[in-house]
Structures are given as structure tokens and as C-alpha cells.
Amino acid sequence: MKLDARSAVDDRAPGSRATAASNDVRAAVAASLAEALPGGGRIAVALSGGRDSITLLDATLRTADALRYPVLALHVDHGLSTRSATWADFCREFCAARNVACHVHRIDVKRIPRGSLEAAARAARYAALDEMARANGAKAVLLAHHADDQAETTLLQLMRGAGPRGLAAMPAKRFDGRLWWLRPLLSLPRARIDAYAARSGLRYVDDESNGDRRYRRNALRNAVVPALRDVAPGYPATLLRAAELQAEAATLLDDLAAIDALEASAGETLDAAAFARLSPARAGNLLRWFLRRHGLPAPSRSRLLEMVTQLAHASGDARVDIAHAGRRLGLHRGRIVVHRAAYDAFAHEWTGTDAIHLPHGTLHLRRAHGSGIAMRHFAASRVTIRSGVRGERLQLPGRAHRRRVADMLREANVPRWERRALPRIYCDEALAAVAPIGIDVAFAAGPVEAAYTLHWQPTHDLHDPE
């Protein structure tokens, strides 16, 4: 079904600004839906109960009726205001009067020491919206941000010293692989939203925290924006154009990073030598892009430059170990790799099970004859499965000497940071085997002897740190 956005818009000739605003709002919603979901589908409106989201839900319902989209509302109760339960009840009543399902989710915003309460609440809100939308089969979530919100976000990012990606502020649409996030009203100023709400006689709630200047956005909105309007009559449209230009610049930087990555990447790693040949600016741009591909946030500019310097000047597989956002950057066989943080030591006593679940994988013991660790050693010893320690040595069958396990793992191309996480089997205090390197000759089964073979199944690999 190909949808026509115009069919959802009031076609009466505009007789006033209010009527024009009504047409603009509904046309914006219709266009956004038709572009993202031309075949239709269930949509969810994020509903706070404030003027903007109430307007968006009302316009969406009028639009969706014409375009045949099933609509539901999602309300997130942050619990940060003493009136939050009242707002949730208002949303339920508003939706019930329009025969719309309203799903309410109460969240507990975790306060991070020295962190922004606004940022924590925003992250928790989006997580709750995502969970509710998917649980109810929605294909898109509509958000009520408008042009004034976009301009304020650009100003806030400017004050943080953000680059093009930050200054681009909020995208009008984004697909996360399963769900569309749409901001249909992003090109419309707040005045249009006000006019629509007034013309439609909409009731909504007011959040008293909007006047609290302890929050930077409120301080900007109440103290700075009025002065900007005096000196720049084109506000917020001029800042919207600036944000769009920054979005284009961010896209071009990503395109440049992809070009550089053709020379410096293979799968989920970067070639360290090719990376080192780039200028610092291009290397920094590539590293930001690379981290984002691993789902990691961009570091600060000073931290980014420090990371680029370490990676670009490392020799061979130098012990580069850079912590970032709960992960590590290191070098392995000339490649820059994102991997887990350091592994914790472990020691598990064997209780006779065929599968031993360890922090980073599962070790399977399978019965066999003539290959593996002789079962008699399991019967005669206290068997433990442990992580690696310094100085371990192993003599494999057919070899004349015992060798350092660390050397054998290096030759087997096991990354340095994963070596100690591989399970070792100890019989009493003697090292019997290292999975997947092999079994010590003193514990290997004879040609027809009952044995256990070892099969190591890690929960991740080098290129999949999750």
C-alpha cells in the first residue's frame, strides 16, 4: 500500500494562522510516516502529557485514521516529580477518551556521581520506550521534538565543544535495525505547536521543572534564547539550517573514514601500519568511526588525540592497552583490536559433569578411547579447572622438551589478553592440559585407554567482544 501524505491533511483553505498550523502539523506527521513506513504498520507515540506530545498524538491520530496506521501511546514515568503519578493518570485518561491503548512504564533513574541527571533520565527513557515499542509490535516510535528543541540542542552541543556529529543535534528519522525513531515536527517552530493545541482545544500538563534554571537547557531557553530572538529574527530556522549542514559534514567525515578503512581494516579490526600513515586528523576521524562501529561512544578530543598517538607510534605488537567505555584497545599481529577488559582469575573444582561453565566460555569433556586425558587421572586426583598463571610449562606428546605455555599460545595466534582466560586442567597441582593447545604427555591416554577429550567453546571471539 503506497501512502499519500496529502490524503491525511485537512484540505480546507487556511483561513487563519491556527488553521495553517493545524495543516502544517498533520502534513508533517503524514510525510514522516509515509517516508519511513510506506507499507503501513503499528506506530507508537511517546507521550509525556505535555503540550508537544499531546499535540503530536492528536495529529497522529487524525493522520493515522486516514492512512490506516494502528496507533498506541507510550508513557514513561521517571518518578522524579511528586506529580509524576498524576501525569501518568492524565495520559491514561486522554488516551481512553480517544480509544487508544496507553502503556505506562515506571523507571528508576540511576543517579551517577558527578553525572548529569538529565542525561541519565534521557537514557532510561529511551530504553523504556524501546522496550515497550518492541513488546507491542510497533514499527516506529514518534517523538515530539520541534524546531526550537533542535536549535537548543545545537546550542548546548556548541557549548560542550562538540564536533559536526554533535552539532547536527537530533535526526528527523533514524532506523536502529528493527525500529524507526521519527521526529515529524522537527522542522516546525514551537509557535506552530502552540497554535495547533489552542485551535484544537487540547488539554495538557505542565512540568514545573521546565522553569528550573539549574538544568542547562532550561537556563538556555529562558535566559539566552529570548536575547537570540532579538538579535537574530530568523531563530530557530537559522540554527536548523546550521544543524543540517553539520549533519552533512558528519556524513562526509564518515564517508572519508570508510575510504580510509578500506586500507586500514579487515572485518572488525584496523591495520596498525595503515593507521599510522594517516594524518592525525584523519586517524582521529577513523578511530571515532571505528569505535562507533563497536557500539562505543567517542572519547573527548584530548583523549582521542592521546589514543591516536599511542596506536600510531606503537612498534610491532607492543603492549598497547587503552581503556575506553568498559572495553580495551590493543594490538594483535599488527592489527588494532577492541576487546574485553582484563579477565578475572578463576578456579573451579570438577564435580564429574561433562560441561564446565566458566566466565568466558564452556569446557566440554567428552568420553573417548585412546585420545585425550586418561580417565584414571581424573579418578586418582583432585581435578580443577583454572585460569593461567605465569611460568606454566607443558610437554606435548611427541615433543622432546617441556615448553612455556605462553610461547605456545602466542604461536597459536591467541591474542595476549585472551591467553590467561583459556582453561587449564590441573590434576592435584600438576598441569595436565591447556584447551585448546593440548595435553601433557604424562597425562595423555594410551592407544586404547578410556579418556576425556577437551572441547573449548568461548562465549565470544576476537572480533566479537560481546
Explain the overall architecture:
α1 (17-36) packs across α2 (51-67). The longest helix has 28 residues, at 237-264. 40% of the residues lie in helices and 20% in strands. The protein starts with 16 loop residues before the first helix and ends in an 8-residue tail after the last strand. It folds into three domains: 5-241, 3-Layer(aba) Sandwich (Rossmann fold), CATH 3.40.50.620; 275-340, Chorismate Mutase Domain, subunit A, CATH 1.20.59; 347-458, no CATH class. It has helices at residues 17-36, 51-67, 84-97, 117-135, 147-159, 164-167, 190-200, 216-231, 237-264, 272-277, 280-293, 301-312, 375-380, 405-411; strands spanning 43-46, 71-77, 101-106, 140-142, 173-175, 180-182, 265-266, 269-271, 322-324, 327-332, 335-340, 347-349, 355-358, 361-369, 373-374, 383-386, 393-394, 403-404, 424-427, 430-434, 438-439, 450-458. It contains 14 helices and 22 strands. It is α+β, with helices and mostly antiparallel strands. The strands form five sheets. Strands 3-2-1-4-6-5 form a six-stranded mixed sheet, sandwiched between helices. It has a five-stranded antiparallel sheet with strand order 7-8-11-10-9. The radius of gyration is 30 Å and the shape is elongated. A hairpin with an 8-residue loop joins β17 and β18.
